[in-house]
């Protein structure tokens, strides 16, 4: 049971760089992965990995743009929406923990 609870809790925790990416996008608006990496002094690979998770969680979004090149720019969801996403995620985790106990 403890292993299952640990897995659930680990899945809820955001990596520090994910939080920094979200904050940066909230402040700056649209940015490419390379711009984010440069600003936060992280590798582009790490940023792309973190962005993928944030996209899957619904915390950031992206859109395809053409600016002499074709690629994605990323932007942060509104804090109110992120709070709702986190609340729903927490509720699902609590429900899963309750099921483990039974």
Describe the structure.
By secondary structure, this protein is of the alpha+beta class. The protein has one domain: Winged helix-like DNA-binding domain superfamily/Winged helix DNA-binding domain (Arc Repressor Mutant, subunit A). 68% of the residues lie in helices and 14% in strands. It contains 5 helices and 2 strands. It has a two-stranded antiparallel ribbon with strand order 1-2. Strand 1 and strand 2 form a beta hairpin. Helix 1 runs antiparallel to helix 5, helix 2 packs across helix 4 and helix 3 crosses helix 4. The longest helix has 23 residues. The protein is elongated and about 55 Å long. The N and C termini lie close together (10 Å). The model has no long low-confidence stretch (mean pLDDT 88).
Low-confidence stretches: none
Largest sheet: 2 strands, antiparallel
- Total domain units: 1
- Our count of helices gives 5
SSE layout:
Layout (H helix, E strand, L loop, with lengths): L1 H11 L3 H13 L4 H8 L3 H14 L2 E7 L3 E7 L2 H23 L1
Antiparallel strand pairs: 1-2
Helix pairs in contact: 1-5, 2-4, 3-4
In a nutshell, what does this entry contain?
This protein is an alpha+beta fold and about 100 residues long. The protein contains five helices and two strands; from the N terminus they run ααααββα. It has one domain: Arc Repressor Mutant, subunit A.
Task: Tag the structure with descriptive keywords.
Arc Repressor Mutant, subunit A; alpha+beta; 102 residues; single chain; two-stranded antiparallel ribbon
């Amino acid at each position: 049971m403890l292993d299952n609870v640990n897995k659930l809790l680990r899945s809820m925790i955001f990596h520090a760089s994910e939080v920094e990416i979200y904050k940066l996008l909230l402040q700056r608006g649209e940015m490419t992965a390379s711009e984010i990496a440069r600003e936060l002094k992280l590798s582009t690979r790490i940023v792309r990995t973190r962005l993928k998770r944030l996209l899957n969680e619904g915390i950031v979004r992206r859109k395809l743009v053409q600016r002499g090149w074709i690629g994605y720019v990323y932007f942060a969801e509104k804090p109110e929406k992120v709070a709702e996403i986190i609340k729903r995620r927490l509720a699902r985790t609590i429900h899963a923990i309750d099921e483990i106990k039974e």
